Amino acid sequence: AREAEELLIPFDSVSVSLNASSREEYDRICRPVESTAWDRLLDFIELARKIASVKLTAVEYPGVKMESVIELASYLGLPFRVRG
Q1: Which of 11, 13, 32, 80 could form a disulfide with 37 if both were Cys (CB 3.0 to 4.6 A apart)?
Q2: Does residue 84 surpass a pLDDT of 90?
Q3: How far apart are CA 30 and CA 35, in angstroms?
């Protein structure tokens, strides 16, 4: 986490692409190598918001429950934008 924090310091804003609304959806769509990728993504978002302004995004893609992604962004209290 310390390395990520140091990388974030120069930035005043960060855009993070969620691309899913849950761990299961993220694993199915993004197929990460690490089984903890979803948790790490959420941890990164929480770390980033302590250092910079954070905006969440997601790509309009078959299989993405966009309404649920929007709800997640709202729950996290962060602005959200649908891409492409």
Answers
A1: 32
A2: no
A3: 11
Contact at 8 Å (CB) between 17 and 41? no
First vs last C-alpha separation in the chain: 31
Structural contact between residues 16 and 48, judged by C-beta atoms closer than 8 angstroms: yes
20: how many CB neighbours lie within 10 A of its CB?
24
SS3 (DSSP) at 44: helix
Residue count (the chain): 84
The arithmetic mean of pLDDT across residues 34-38, rounded, is: 95
Among 17, 28, 6, 27, residue whose Cα is nearest residue 60: 17
Residues 6+ apart with CB under 8 A from 22: 38, 68
Question: pLDDT tens, 21-35?
Answer: 999 999 999 999 999
